[in-house]
Specification:
Largest interface: A-B, 95 and 95 residues
Largest sheet of chain A: 7 strands, mixed
CATH architecture of the largest domain in chain A: 2-Layer Sandwich
Number of domains of chain A: 2
Oligomer: homodimer
Structural class of chain A: alpha+beta
CATH class of the largest domain in chain A: Alpha Beta
Order of helices and strands of chain A: EHHHEEHEHEEEEEHEEHEHHEHE
Number of strands of chain A: 14
Strand content of chain A: 15-25%
Helix content of chain A: 25-40%
CATH topology of the largest domain in chain A: Ribosomal Protein S8, Chain: A, domain 1
Chain lengths: 363, 363
């Protein structure tokens, strides 16, 4: 399936140059490219350069996303900020917001930033990973809830209309010698692209992944229109995944000014809504509680205890969040990043449009 | 099944008096009783007075839990504290810890308290509900991870030994006219008592709830020994429930000093472990971000939009976290709290042992 591969640094240069030529300032383009290539390095290809054209470059080119936004702090305290993302690239807004949270954390121990009026920010895990690089605890969330529902997305438990996006939770804790703990999870059972993949392979999907257009459970990926919250069914705890999705929405969109005074009322009298994607970032210093080195040694001890769990008969071993991606990153930094044909086609198109060299290796 | 009922205030008096006579100071006994009766008022009977005898009164009486602990702040900043719970009642320690977090939040906007060396603290949702009463955002977590596993508990994904407790997440956001959003969820698919309930009814359990003693999936409740993380199977996202459980453990036990310098190394060289139950409490002022009234109006708008979601064909309606419990509380404050026979038997035993009047109504 992956006929081509590319060195991570070459992919970074390519993506950054494309965005620069689309009108994004140089430093912002480097940030945005790093978010995408980080996902590819770690095997999270759903959030990598496969989206460079459709989610980002095309939208900056056609003006539906601003290439040169002015992020504006609308309200601020030493430990918090509410920010207007000015309809900028979410990848750029996310880096800007997380840096603001980290600056506050360095100064006073914690920083929390709620941002509205942004766009798709890539892999949520990138933002806590920024904090981990400075041994801070990091949190990155992104939330969307449509007041009148949406064609695609996640249904509330018992609901038959998509109201929520996959509203992911990402959180990271620094370890010492072990890979850092880094959880990055959609609050739905599965992302839509795994449904599409099953359809392409001609395979059914399990019960608990999706509903058809009428809100009935389906195992036919071609009929699957709406995703179910983590848990799948009420009996398996879907109210928990749904509750987490609303928690994410509240921290992102409600704290940043959505669903009220800062947004327009809806035509049908349904009160308000949110403006575009909303995010929440937090960074926390471990030494608010205990010395950093002791904490990191404790993380190593805990991670090793989990890894030593006796395994189920048909399984190789037990993992800890972020570990598989950590090993994938080491491998891909050595061997290059594999790219499937459809992604390569998009990248060639960008290469021609913006006159940027694309150096691929045939596998 | 529920042959008896009791007024909430009478149950509160009874539970508080039992604990006082068991050796708990008066104010602490009132706190502990309120945590339990709050759960009963809201229909969370698994965490109510059914545990008064076995989890709390018996253990204070036999000295395995201290009735008069001295909670000690081991380290503190204006926004954080690490606390030694001194092997006290978790119900009392929890109220003390949450009040400390709320005091910090009132003073500087946020308060975070990590506490080790505590015990079972009842329903996690009680602690964010304390914050909601003052229009603060509230968080309550409790975590346990046994370095060498345990007979009962939750397995990591792919694991065949219980390593984690059900490590719940509770978080609350204040609303205006609607019931406050209050999510209180175990990070396992289901609690053990629902497995036991199915066994008593002679019913099978669904795939994805539990494993047998050898780590094989089972639908026979009598064979079920270990619980699965939320998601159930890897295909349904159990690595997410497992990841959330480890997140809870880290915020509770790692920040409070577990798995390192403050705990003893294990005999088999497996580094360290944690001391007893660990908790994490946080309170956050909404006006760190936006005016409280606007936020609460926004919460109402969001809650109403969710409630207006078109429902699945076989369902009555869509709910929001905390709503069902809110309505149960109104009903039980009117009609009294139903108590099943096995709970009544425990309460009678306590009534005799501590010479406390128990006023039940026969239904």
């Amino acid at each position: 399936m992956s006929e081509y591969r590319i060195r991570a640094e070459q992919l970074q240069d390519f993506a950054a140059t494309v965005l620069k030529r689309a009108g994004v300032p140089a430093a912002d383009a480097e940030d945005a490219a790093d978010v995408l290539v980080w996902a590819n390095r770690r095997g999270v290809d759903t959030h990598g350069v496969r989206n460079l054209k459709t989610h980002y470059a095309d939208k900056v080119s056609d003006g539906s996303i601003k290439g040169t936004p002015e992020f504006r702090i609308e309200y601020e305290t030493p430990i918090s900020a509410r920010v207007d993302g000015d309809n900028g690239l979410g990848l750029v807004a996310g880096c800007w917001g997380m840096r603001l949270a980290m600056k506050k954390a360095r100064e006073v121990g914690i920083g929390m930033v709620a941002m509205r009026n942004s766009n798709h920010f890539g892999a949520a895990g990138y933002y806590p990973a920024m904090a981990l690089a400075e041994d801070l605890i990091g949190v990155g969330l992104t939330g969307m809830l449509w007041a009148q529902g949406n064609q695609i997305g996640v249904v509330p438990t018992f609901g038959a209309r998509a109201m929520l996006s996959t509203n992911p939770i990402a959180i990271g804790f620094p370890a010492q010698d072990e890979p850092d703990f880094l959880l990055d999870m959609a609050t739905s059972t599965t992302p839509m692209n795994r449904v599409v993949m099953r359809q392409e392979l001609g395979q059914p999907i399990p019960e608990g992944w999706a509903l058809d257009a009428e809100g009935r459970s389906t195992t036919d990926p071609s009929m699957a229109k709406m995703l179910l919250p983590l848990g799948g069914t009420r009996e398996h705890g879907s109210h928990k995944g749904y509750g987490l999705a609303v928690m994410v929405e509240t921290l992102c969109a409600l704290l940043s000014g959505g669903w009220g005074a800062l947004t327009e009322p809806l035509p049908n009298g349904l009160d308000h809504d949110q403006t575009r994607d909303a995010h929440f970032f937090a960074a926390v210093r471990v030494d608010l509680f205990r010395p950093l080195d002791e904490f990191k040694q404790g993380m190593d001890a805990m991670i090793r205890a989990l890894r030593a769990t006796p395994r189920q008969p048909d399984q190789d071993r037990v993992y800890v969040a972020g570990e598989i991606e950590h090993h994938t990153e080491r491998k891909r930094l050595r061997e290059g990043i594999p790219l499937p044909a459809n992604v390569v086609a998009d990248l060639w198109e960008l290469s021609r449009r913006f006159d940027v060299t694309l150096s691929l290796e045939k596998r």
